[in-house]
């Protein structure tokens, strides 16, 4: 049905900024202690998101291993804490592409592994009694462009051939007309933090440890492996899993095979009887993804994602307003309750990279490149890596193996395009003239890259007028950062590292903070 005449949006702020996500706001904060002594375990997992916690839990309950999880901040507050939390095997228009690039068997393995992850969440949450708002829901990829019907029909056919309950349809629960859609049954959505905090409780109940505010800065591969932390502690383990979304150690140069992107999210209460009853995604133009979550009092929380952009993009507030307006135009929602942003890494050959870290790795493993579908892929990674470490190879292990050079060669044009974009930033951002001449030109609550005392500096002026200056060079590979006004962060456009206005690391692959700079002097006045 078509009805696009709803109340105008009420974004309110001239420059809207992001908030914590619904998942973080509706759960208690965690307080696992930092690591303060040297320890030895069977397996060390670096990263406390869905991939890391799922791997640790599977190793504990299914593999009987002693495990430690090391998280630089708080568990389930990074990328996982800002997801839209769809647990689905429908990843956009992927199965027709997989059928063409990896054959029918490759598409079937991808479908089986991803659907198995959906069922694993259902199984584990029921077994542990975790009230994580798990709901079965159909998933749709839709288009409003009639020219896309053939592509949608081909996708429905390929997904069905791969073993999924998929069909082409032209009727949906959306409040506007679509040209066509692929509907997939038996998919799900949940509250990711409630689920993962349940895993964490069970993990520690079995005597394993989680250490938050413990940043890992060094990795020595051997028999055994050794990890060193920012505060000088050592973790000795037979096996190490790097599950930090973007690998903080990259001996296989995986950063050259992935491209980072951020997506904005807005959410507002919706009458329960106007729920579109499904999870939807449209990949045309600026992309729109829609789902709802329980809210109570006869309402659901409508969650809308879109406005994909590269970290370091400067027009983020305008993008938030555009997404907010789209939501209020198409749905009868109340005032916007949340605005947040999520970050993802796309593998150059579509499939996530899960398995041995590099060709010479014997006891180190990685999970990355989830391409925006981290809930199913993170759970999948937990089972796949736990099985590999326990010498039980999954049928789809080769499909996800990061050492799959053959597919990288085949996808060379995509890879080269990604690295050309990185090169453009690496060189071009150094040559570009800054848009302000001195720190005095920076308005409160904003930031800019300014040359101070002969150095290119990232300068932020706080709401009280105080200036804070750090080096503008990302500590990963030296690209120039840009200010993200909506999130008040310094973002690297090359590989997605993000830093606080004080230079602290918010998101890797960077391990070290931006160096402090002196804002005093004639150029910084």
Automatic annotation (TrEMBL):
Domain Rieske: 434-525
Gene3D superfamilies assigned: D-Amino Acid Oxidase, subunit A, domain 2, FAD/NAD(P)-binding domain, Rieske [2Fe-2S] iron-sulphur domain
Phylogenetic placement of the source organism: Bacteria, Bacillati, Actinomycetota, Actinomycetes, Kitasatosporales
Record keyword Disulfide bond present: yes
Keywords of this entry: 2Fe-2S, Disulfide bond, Iron, Iron-sulfur, Metal-binding
Pfam families assigned to the protein according to its UniProt record, in alphabetical order: DAO (PF01266), Rieske (PF00355)
Segments of skewed composition (Basic and acidic residues): 17-35
Region (Disordered): 1-35
Gene Ontology molecular functions: 2 iron, 2 sulfur cluster binding; metal ion binding; monooxygenase activity; oxidoreductase activity, acting on paired donors, with incorporation or reduction of molecular oxygen
Record-linked InterPro entries: FAD-dep_OxRdtase, FAD/NAD-bd_sf, Rieske_2Fe-2S, Rieske_2Fe-2S_sf, Rieske_Fe-S_prot_C, YhfW_C
Protein name in UniProt: Iron-sulfur binding oxidoreductase
Organism: Streptomyces pristinaespiralis (strain ATCC 25486 / DSM 40338 / CBS 914.69 / JCM 4507 / KCC S-0507 / NBRC 13074 / NRRL 2958 / 5647)
Superkingdom of the organism of origin: Bacteria
One cellular-component annotation, GO: membrane
